[in-house]
Amino acid sequence: MLLLLIVLASLGGHAVVRGVVLPDRVRAARRIALAVALAGLALTGRALVGVLSAKVAANETPGVTPLCLTAGVPSLVYAFWLFRQAGDGGWRERPALTDVERGGRYVAFAVVAMGLFWAANSLAGEVGVARAYDDARDFAELPEVVLYTKEPLSDAPPETLHADFGRSVTYRHRYQNLRLLLASGGRLFLVPLTWRPDARTARISTFVVAYDGDIRLQLIPQKTD
């Protein structure tokens, strides 16, 4: 929504510049072009710093570098176009500059597409971290899981309680003392019931089980105040 509002504001500003400023206020148009060019240089420079410096990229707010790149390059291309429109006729009509402007537009479109995908990926990663933090904070509220399997599970955490009901039972193996951390992609991500996010010495073991027809599970909700 924020990006959409920025695009609409930019289109509105462009309409004002093209319909009001350029026809009668050439000096104002040149000043606007200079301001846009300086802003584009600053944004592009900040984006290059984020690309080249791993330290900056690791500590910045997610999305800053790609959004600076997305805004900076088009700003430079727009400033170049505006300088040409506000300049004299000879500079405006040079074929070589027209080719440069056309190439700049293609580059700007490519950079915008790449920057938006990059920013979306950064945002998705940050949302994942935030959800993991929320899960860790409310860890005690996640449901307990009791697994019933046809075959014994290999490498089950030692904290689990295993019971074998014999061959007469289809799902003969029961595993207790597990908590459901996440279910995704046909897999169950489980952790021992005794583990706590703030523990410093406890064994940390995420147990991944394929959730298919060989498994049945019982979810036991935790009591909350």
Description:
There is one protein chain. This protein is an alpha+beta fold. It is 56% helix and 17% strand. It has 6 helices and 6 strands, in the order ααααααββββββ. The protein has helices at 2-24, 26-52, 54-59, 64-86, 89-92, 95-137, and strands at residues 144-149, 161-164, 173-184, 187-192, 207-210, 215-220. Strands 1, 2, 3, 4, 5 and 6 form a 6-stranded antiparallel beta sheet that branches. Strand 2 and strand 3 form a beta hairpin. Helix 2 (26-52) packs antiparallel against helix 4 (64-86) and helix 4 runs antiparallel to helix 6 (95-137). It is rod-shaped and about 90 Å long. The model has no long low-confidence stretch (mean pLDDT 81).
Secondary structure blueprint with pairings:
Blueprint: H1 2-24, H2 26-52, H3 54-59, H4 64-86, H5 89-92, H6 95-137, E1 144-149, E2 161-164, E3 173-184, E4 187-192, E5 207-210, E6 215-220
Helix pairs in contact: 2-4, 4-6
Which structural category do the helix and sheet elements fall into? alpha+beta
What spatial form do the alpha-carbon principal axes imply? rod-shaped
Distance between the termini: 37 Å
Bin the helical content. Answer: 55-70%
Sheet-strand content, in percent, reads 15-25%
Give the biggest beta sheet.
Answer: 6 strands, antiparallel
* Count of distinct strands: 6
